[in-house]
Amino acid sequence: MAGSANNPACRGRVAILDDEPSVRDLLGMFLQTRNYEVSLFDTPEKLYQALKKQPVELLVCDLYLGDTSGLEVIKKVRPQFPGLDIVVLTGYASIENVIEAFHLGASDFLQKPINLLLLETTVERCLEKKRLVRQVDQLEKIVEIHRVAESMGDGNKLPQLLELVLSSALKTLSGDKGYIALIDQTADSTQLRVGCALGLSKDEADRIANLGETELASLCAKLNGQIDEHRSQLSLDGSPLAEIGAGGTTLALPLVRHGTLSGFLVLVRNDPARPFQASEQSAAELLASNASLAIENARLYRDLETGYLSTINTLAKALEARDKYTGGHAERVARYSRMLADLTDMSPRMKAKLEVACVLHDIGKLGVSDYVLQKAGPLTREERDQIKQHPAIGDKILAQVPSLSEERRFVYEHHERYDGSGYPRGVGGSDISQAGNILILVEVYDALATVRSYKNAWTSEMIREHFEEGRGSLYDPKTTDLFLQLLDTKLRTG
Fold it and tell me: For residue 171, what are the domain limits?
C-alpha cells in the first residue's frame, strides 16, 4: 500500500510495522486518506530491506511483534537512519518499555486501541518538527552564503559566492546540474556571461557564453517582460538556452537588481519524472534572491540580515504554535522586556538587540522532543537534563550569524541565576549581562503568570513574593527592584 511519490499534496512518507493485519491495514488506509504515502510491513526483516531502498520520514512500530520486540527494531534502525522519527504502539501500558523506547530514540507513543485522530495529530507533529529542522538546515546554508558575502571587499570574490549559492541550491533541491548567468549592461552593449556552472558540459557552457547579440537582446526583453508580470519563475523556451536540460526538468529563477534583470539561476534535473515542487521552488527563490543581493555588495549585509532574522523568527513562532500552553510566550517576553528596559539606562541599540533575543530565546527547543516539552506533570531527571540543553542548542543555531553575537549571549543566559545556580554554564553576578538579567526575570514572570500543562497561573501576590524572596539570590537585586516596580504598576494579574 503506497501513495504516489510524485503527488504534490503528499504530506510525508510513513512506514507501519505491526504483526496484526487488521491494525496495520486500518492505520494505513486512514493515513492514506490524509494524504500520507504509506508502506505496510508485518515483519522487521521486510521493513529493513525496504528502508535500504526507499527511506521514510516516520516509522509507526508496534512494541510487541511476536518473536521480536519493537525495542530491538528501534535499536537496529536508529543507527542506520538517524533522521527517522519513530512512534511506538503498545497494547500494554508498560511504562518501563515506553521509557526504554524513548531512551533508544523514539519520538512518541500511542496506546492501543488507537484513536485515529490522535494518530493523525502525532504523525503531523513529528513531521512538522522535521520540517522545522530542515528549515534550520536551509538557514545554515544561507548563513554560510552571508558569511562569504560579508567578507567580500571587491568583485573578485563574487565567483566564490556564486559557486556557494549554486552548490547549495543543487544540494538542497537534489539537482543534477545548473548555472548562474549574469547580464552585464552598459550604454553601448549587453553581454551574457557564466558566473558559475556545475555539471555542464563544455558545449553547454559555450552555448551560454556565445549567445549572439540579437538572441541575447530578444531573450532579455522576454525575461524582463516576465518580471514585469510578477512571475517568480522564468521560461527559457524559444531560446538556445532551452536546449540545456532538454529532456529533463528545469527551474529558472531571476536575479533582479533595481527592478531590472541582472541574471538568472537555472537548475536542472535529468529525470523528467521529477518536477520541481512548489516548496522546492521557494527554497531556490530564497537562494536566488540572496545571489541577486550579493551582486550589489553595498546592500548585501543589511538585506540578508533581515532575511535571516525573519527566517529564525518564523521558526520561533512555528515552534510556539505547536504548544497551546506557550503560544505567544516569546512575544509577551519581548513586550515585558521593553517595559523593563525603559526603566534602565540601556541604550536604544541594546534595547533593540534585547527584543530580538526575546523573540529567539527558546529557538533551541527545536532540539528537545515534543514528549518532554508537552508532558503534563513532573519531569524525570533525564527529561530535565534534556530541557536544560535548549539554551546551548539555541546558542549553536545563532552562532552561525556573526552579527547576532550579543543577542546570542542573552539567549544563552536566559536560564542562568544571580547566585550561579542556573544553567547551562552556572555563571552568576556580574558575569550575566544587564540584558540577560532582564530576560531572566521576564521569562520567569511569564512562566508563573500563565497557565502551563503542569500548573495554574499565579496571582500577582504570589509572583511578588517569589521575586522578593529571590532578590539577591536567584535574581540581580537592582534589576529585581525595577521589575517589582513594574509589577506594581503595569503587570498586575488576578
Answer: 154-298
C-alpha cell read off for 215: 538572441
Each residue's pLDDT, cut to its tens digit, for the chain (494 residues) gives 444 344 556 788 999 999 999 999 999 999 999 999 999 999 999 999 998 888 888 999 998 888 888 999 999 998 888 878 999 998 775 678 888 888 888 888 888 888 998 999 989 888 888 777 766 666 666 666 555 555 444 444 667 778 888 888 888 778 899 999 888 776 677 788 888 899 998 888 888 888 888 888 888 888 888 887 666 788 888 888 988 988 889 999 988 877 778 889 999 998 887 888 776 777 778 777 767 766 665 344 545 555 666 766 677 777 766 665 566 888 899 999 999 999 999 999 999 999 989 988 988 888 887 777 777 778 888 888 988 999 999 998 888 776 788 999 999 999 999 999 999 999 999 999 999 999 999 999 999 998 876 678 899 899 999 999 999 999 999 999 999 999 988 775 54
Same domain, 81 and 171: no
C-alpha separations of 227 from 200, 256, 367 in Å: 26, 9, 40
Q: How far apart are CA 152 and CA 170, in angstroms?
A: 23
Q: Judge whether 459 lies within some domain.
A: yes
Task: Name which of 35, 122, 40 is nearest 87 in CA terms.
Answer: 122
Hey, what's the torsion of the CAs at 150, 153, 157, 160, to 10 degrees? -10
Contacts of residue 153, defined as CB under 8 A and 6 or more positions apart, other chains included, come to none
Residue 260 phi/psi, 5° resolution? Answer: -120, 145
* Judgement on whether residues 292 and 344 belong to the same structural domain of the protein: no
Three cell numbers, residue 258? 533595481
How far is Cα 83 from Cα 406, in angstroms, rounded to an integer? Answer: 32
Distance CA 222, CA 225 (A): 5
**Prior bond of 424 cis (ω within 30°):** yes
Residues 429, 14: Cα–Cα separation, whole Å: 50
Say which CATH number the domain at 181 has. 3.30.450.40
Other beta carbons within 10 angstroms of residue 386's beta carbon come to: 18
Taking CA 120 as the corner, what is the angle to CA 115 and CA 122, rounded to the nearest 5 degrees?
90
Domain count, the chain: 3
* Residue from 125, 139, 134, 147 nearest 312 by CA: 139
52 neighbors 60 (Cβ within 8 angstroms): no
The string of DSSP letters for 62-94 reads ESEETTEEHHHHHHHHHHH-TT-EEEEEESS--
The CA distance from 325 to 485, in Å, is: 27
Per the DSSP assignment, residues forming a β-bridge with 253 are 265
d(CA 261, CA 254): 7
User: Contact, 296 vs 257, CB < 8 A?
Assistant: yes
Q: Cell 536560564 appears where? A: 415
Max Cα distance, the chain (Å): 80
